[in-house]
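Lecture notes, part 5. Sequence design as translation. It can be helpful to think of inverse folding as translation between two languages: the language of shapes and the language of residues. The source text, in structure tokens, appears below.
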């Protein structure tokens, strides 16, 4: 299931993010290049709710934007790595 921004209810930590006064375009760039994400990730690096933000994006399978300092591609990699770890645990004798 994919969650869109329209579906999301605001979570309490969202008002504490370091991105509150930043340009949303930084976090939802039109281009998905690494260079365009660099500034947003630098802001996320100093964010006090970074873990909550990333967890929220992973839990809700949010596709667009930079959350918790991770791009969509990086979040997909995290999800795949988690799946692989779960499969290994299940298949252990
Ligand atoms: S981790 Fe980044 S995107 Fe998430 S709330 Fe903090 S600054 Fe915003």
């Amino acid at each position: 299931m994919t969650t869109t921004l329209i579906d999301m209810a605001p979570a309490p930590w969202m008002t504490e993010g370091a991105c509150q006064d930043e340009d949303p375009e930084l976090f939802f760039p039109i281009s998905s290049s690494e260079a365009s994400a660099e500034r947003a990730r630098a802001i996320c690096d100093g964010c006090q709710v970074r873990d909550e933000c990333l967890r929220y994006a992973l839990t809700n399978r949010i596709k667009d934007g930079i959350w918790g300092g991770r791009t969509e591609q990086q979040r997909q990699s995290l999800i795949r790595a988690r799946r692989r770890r779960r499969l290994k645990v299940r298949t252990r004798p």
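The translated text above is only one of many valid answers, since several sequences can fold into similar shapes. The pocket of iron/sulfur cluster is lined by residues 17-19, 27, 43-44, 47, 49-50, 53, 66-69 (CB under 6 Å).
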